[in-house]
Amino acid sequence: KVDAMTVSTTFTTQDMRAAILHHLTYTMGKDADHATTYDWRMALSFAVRDRIVDGWFASTRKSYEAGAKRVYYLSMEFLIGRLLQDGLVNLRLLDDACEALTALGLDPWQVISNEPDAALGNGGLGRLAACFLESLSSLGVPAHGYGIRYEHGLFRQSFVDGRQVELPETWLQQHHAWEFERPEARYRIGFGGDARDAGWDPAEAVIAAAYDTPIVGWQGRWANTLRLWAAKPVEAFDLDSFNRGDFVGAATPEAMARTISRVLYPDDTTEIGKELRLKQEYFFTAASLADILRRFEMEHGDLRKLPEKVAIQLNDTHPAIAGPELVRLLHDDNGIPFDEAMDLARSTLGYTNHTLLPEALERWSDHLFGRLLPRHLEIIDRIDQAHRATYPSSSVTIREPGVVKMGELSFVMAHRVNGVSALHTELMKSTVFKELNALHPDRIVNETNGVTPRRWLLSSNPRLASLITERIGEDWVGDLEQLSRLEEHVGDAGFLSAYAEAKRANKADLAAWIEAEHGIALDPAMMFDVQIKRLHEYKRQHLNILEAIALWQAIRAAPDADWTPRVKIFAGKAAPGYHFAKDIIRLINDVAEVVNADPVTRDKLKIVFLPNYNVTLAERLIPASDLSEQISTAGKEASGTGNMKFALNGALTIGTLDGANVEIRERVGEENFFLFGMTADEVVARRKIKDHAAKAIAVDPRLAAALAAVRDGTFCAEEPDRYAHIVQNLSGPDYFLVSSDFTDYWRAQREVDAAYRDADGWTRMAARNTVRSGWFSSDRTIRGYMADVWGAEPVI
Ligand code: 26Q
């Protein structure tokens, strides 16, 4: 028997070249003389895909044979980015592919970079889902991801006069090389109509059509499936309208149905088409559950064994309708008594919470809900009644007059509820789910997030990866905690200089790319200080830019002092309707323009805001970073995962005691982490102090001067009041305590400056971050879910 691993290791440059040419000819229909970069990229992708498919089939077969428990990860978002390089790296074909392409007269990186970045997610939650799929495959756990095949992923961001402009994202305009359409896997999904006699007559319906993408794990030993649903009309086309000459009307059913999988909602802070969002949620959840039950019945039959063989994880409340939908399928469609159906559903479901921000906890008006999902509203009422009957003194409600609360619904319908970092989980217990936690003290567990080392170290930082492999062999790739074996090398001058050289070369590559793409020249000797993440007040990009302004003023006041040259790099998108966040972007761009043009500070401070942050840009930036900005208001960032990627790649963190920063600092050592700011408890106390912002400004002349420069139009002479509202916010309500944390942030930044001037000391600290970050592998996180939530085990 030839397994996938044997296949990939016996696949030589020769074979690779032949496979590429084969697909160029017979799949793309081009000859080498007329092929475009796109053609070559597709040909290579098909060649790699062929290598994945054998292992994929083998995995499916082994899962059936083992009769093992299956994990289903339901998520509105999968931020998978590019898949070609990932596939090449995991199958260990990258060198062969590069050699083959070079022999064909091509630039391998140009071919690999031709792939669009699949941005089917907003940020951390979606990227976590993608890392989890990869880890599930690397560990050999039978699993499926279920989501939506958005035609348009997260918008493309560009800047016009420093302002964010959103453009449609069009990743599916080209053929998606990795997916397989599954015409046999289609489900009819109903909406509206009437609920009666424990049943439902929907008034309308759409078809959910499956598209499968194999997700291959490390060394190609296992591959799982990401199944994404596209919405299609029940009747493709209204022939009667067409024959009457109403061509637009004839196409309407199709257009209406397709709307459901048309676009990814950009975050929670926009004024959205609420009805369409709820339709999306039900659409993909119902299709996924129908598919899960079909597979279960084929394999096992007796629905009462569902929790034994199936674990379904809800990625936040977005698929929370899975609770009532599963009860509906078990009770209404299969005659299982209501209470038993509820227990079976609960034993099958787990719920992950990713936020404590009240505005991000989903609530639906029961008017809308009842109109779209009348039977589900009845079921939710019965779930609510059952909860109140069991706990008569509980004041927790799932239904309130006029609203359905998805957080509470998810909690009572899941046997485990988890937070994503130790601090976040504790705050869940003491705040949003305090009372439910008292009723169910064993239900809430913590599963601290992690990131896949294949993409976030091996693939994106080959220089550092090779250095590690040289010293400890390559087993670390599948077992990241082995990085601790490098601990003894951190005292070794040879290792440290090689470590520093890898970072320097990564920075030079990034600088060259930024110069080529954006025309900004950066000196790689400067400290690369990087904040890349969604724009949000709680993430406090405005704290960072205020510090930059204060630093600029300080350098101008004493240009000959011994400053540590640094470039502040920002990237991130703001929700289109989140005007304050968009104004922060514009402010950063305005400040950059003034500061970068100042001859006095030119070689000491630069500010760059790179447009259109995505997974691919993160892969470029993180290996080249010296300093990682993780500066959220304590208690607000559930975990963060970028923070882990930076630490792993040897950037030092300047950060607050928030989310997983706490655990990162514990592991890398407090002497290798720049801590500042109030704790979560102090934040709560500080807000109660009258005029807290004004008081902070009054005692810090640097902060006052920085705010004054923003206020007086120093960065926007043509419209001096442009940022008055930002200054007003930071001087008054300042909910996120930017002003109150500024002084300590400045202090920590100056410690960063001093530390960076000691190049050897800095490298040692950076290396310690790498060596001690092994715990932040998503393999470890997945093992935690398997043990604490899913009761699932690997099959290999
Ligand atoms: C909700 C309703 C309507 C439209 C959109 C949404 C919506 C969409 C996306 C709500 C939330 C999100 C995304 C949340 C998110 O990314 N949270 C992050 O999850 C990471 C993984 O756990 C954490 O590391 C981050 O701390 C957390 O902010």
TrEMBL record:
InterPro entries recorded: Glycg_phsphrylas, Glyco_trans_35, Pyridoxal_P_attach_site
Claim: Cytoplasm is one of the keywords in the record: no
SUPFAM superfamilies registered for this protein in UniProt: UDP-Glycosyltransferase/glycogen phosphorylase
E.C. numbers: 2.4.1.1
Organism superkingdom: Bacteria
Reported function: Allosteric enzyme that catalyzes the rate-limiting step in glycogen catabolism, the phosphorolytic cleavage of glycogen to produce glucose-1-phosphate, and plays a central role in maintaining cellular and organismal glucose homeostasis. Phosphorylase is an important allosteric enzyme in carbohydrate metabolism. Enzymes from different sources differ in their regulatory mechanisms and in their natural substrates. However, all known phosphorylases share catalytic and structural properties.
Protein's recorded name: Alpha-1,4 glucan phosphorylase
